[in-house]
Amino acid sequence: KYYNRNDAKEPKAIMKIEHLNATFQPEKIGNPHGLQITYLKDNSTRNIFVYHEDGKEMVDWFNAIRAARFHYLQVAFPGASDIDLVPKLSRNYLKEGYMEKTGPKQTEGFKKTLVYHG
């Protein structure tokens, strides 16, 4: 569960481990210890960007997410070998950017959508 305030009564989002991904993104965040966490919400990919002054803290976060995903994958795919599961721990996106699209009618407006490829 993700809370955006310490005193929040309800979570802002519930991130299921099966759809959770973490990648280091120092350039995108503007911090050498930046981490991008992606998850699904209502069939849309959502992002949370986090950083800490201590790089070890972010490495610990990254490893904790990977360990939780690894355990989930071991339970979800009990017959799979660890070697087969490791590539599924995290996804690195080759290309990320915005795409604008419209519907089939000329009167419909364009929608800007964030797209991940990789």
TrEMBL record:
One GO cellular component, as annotated: cytoplasm
Q: Give the domain of life.
A: Eukaryota
What SUPFAM superfamilies does the record point to? Answer: PH domain-like
CDD domains annotated for this entry?
PH1_ADAP
GO MF terms held by the record: GTPase activator activity; phosphatidylinositol bisphosphate binding; phosphatidylinositol-3,4,5-trisphosphate binding
**Which PANTHER family does the record associate with it?**
ARF-GAP WITH DUAL PH DOMAIN-CONTAINING PROTEIN 1, ARF-GAP WITH DUAL PH DOMAIN-CONTAINING PROTEIN 1-LIKE PROTEIN
Annotated protein name in UniProt? PH domain-containing protein
Naturally occurring in which organism (per UniProt) = Micrurus lemniscatus lemniscatus
